[in-house]
Amino acid sequence: MKFAIALFSAPHAPSARRALRFAEAVLAEGHEIVRLFFYREGVYSASQAVVTPQDELDIAAQWRAFVIQHNLDAVVCIAAALRRGVLNAEEAQRYGRQAVSLEAPWELSGLGQLHEAAQQADRLICFGGD
Amino acid sequence: MATLHLLAQSPYSSVLDSALRLLSAQDAVLFTGDACHALQAGSAPLEKLQQLPVGIELFALEEDMQARNISTPARVTLVDYPAFVALSIRFDKVNSWL
Amino acid sequence: MAKSMLLINRHSPWSGLCARETLDIALAGGAFDLPIGMLFLDDGVFQLAIQQNPAVLQQKDLGANLQALPLFGVDDLYVCGESLTRRGLAADRLALPAQALDTAALAALVDRYDLVITL
């Protein structure tokens, strides 16, 4: 089965960790993830700028490692990201901002990518709310 | 078409009431995060859930029940992540209450 | 055949970005000619209240964007009758032509769509 997984919450949110554990189980059970799409507060879960105390879970880093390990298509909504100050080098330069908080493997793109993934996948699962 | 409703908020917000209003006869509910408080023995939300038609299955994410020390009511099935994945396939779609 | 998507709006218009970012999902879907439906439920019905004045809050007029829905092919607009009544709003005085549904019809609505997200 093909899954599209969307995350709507920040890295410290229980749902951000829950989404990752679910995504890991999807692959462990032999299914495919067609795309990860991070929207709303989920853009923060793709941030490289998050600094987590040593004795706490670094979910943003775990997401990144997961995406790289499995070579997943990982998209962050550009409109939601810009509003929240999550910028890659290109956007930071475009808007004259000093802070770059998004890097590969994350790609900034539009909501069309969420719709495309939802159409291609057998299941769309969204996480957030807490 | 049967829907799995995925809840993550406290039952003392309006999410639970609204979700229950939208349930069809073949639907199910998966309680995660603070939504698991709805399964607390002696609580008003649990009383309401016990009234649901028996065809509506109730599931809870095991780790969230354990973390909160909530014992599992008779009609609730605990799931781990592999079972959560299986549930999302068994039902035609998953409606997440965000 | 394209999968249909129902977006359930539960947030009021001036309580942050939720209403706007949910609408953006609908408009993006419409732009790709996908079958999109919108249900306004709970505080989401406030998005349909008439004669609002977002300018005094220095907010962009969400209402104007909501009016764009039919232009993007998103015509299937629904509102929960009970949510309206509880909040003192009338189904025949809404900013958009949304069909008022009772509780039984809400469940049937969710059933009809291939994808559903509740925001």
Describe the protein's architecture and organization.
The complex is a heterotrimer of chains A (130), B (98) and C (119). Chain A has 130 residues and is of the alpha/beta class. Chain A has a single domain (2-127), classed as DsrEFH-like (Hypothetical Protein Ychn, Chain: A). Chain A has helices at residues 14-28, 59-70, 78-83, 89-94, 112-120; strands spanning 2-7, 32-38, 74-77, 107-109, 123-127. Chain A has a 5-stranded parallel β-sheet, sandwiched between helices. The radius of gyration of chain A is 14 Å and the shape is globular. Chain B has a single domain (3-96), classed as Hypothetical Protein Ychn, Chain: A, CATH 3.40.1260. Chain B has a 5-stranded parallel β-sheet. In chain B, strand 1 (3-7), helix 1 (15-21) and strand 2 (28-31) form a beta-alpha-beta unit. The longest helix of chain B has 10 residues, at 81-90. Chain C has helices at 18-31, 62-67, 81-86, 103-112, and strands at 5-9, 36-40, 76-80, 99-101, 115-118. In chain C, strands 4-3-2-1-5 form a 5-stranded parallel β-sheet. Chain C is of the alpha/beta class and 119 residues long. Classes of the chains: A alpha/beta (130), B alpha/beta (98), C alpha/beta (119). The interface between B and C is medium-sized, with 15 and 19 residues. Strand 5 of chain B pairs parallel with strand 5 of chain C.
Structural features:
heterotrimer, A: about 130 residues, alpha/beta, Hypothetical Protein Ychn, Chain: A, 5 helices, C: about 120 residues, 4 helices, 5 strands, globular
Number of domains of chain A: 1
Shape label of chain C: globular
Q: Just name the CATH architecture of chain C.
A: 3-Layer(aba) Sandwich
Query: Which fold name fills CATH's third level, the topology of chain A?
Result: Hypothetical Protein Ychn, Chain: A
The assembly state of the depicted protein chains is heterotrimer
The overall pLDDT of chain A, averaged over residues, is 98
Major sheet of chain A: size, sense and barrel closure? 5 strands, parallel
The number of helical segments of chain C is: 4
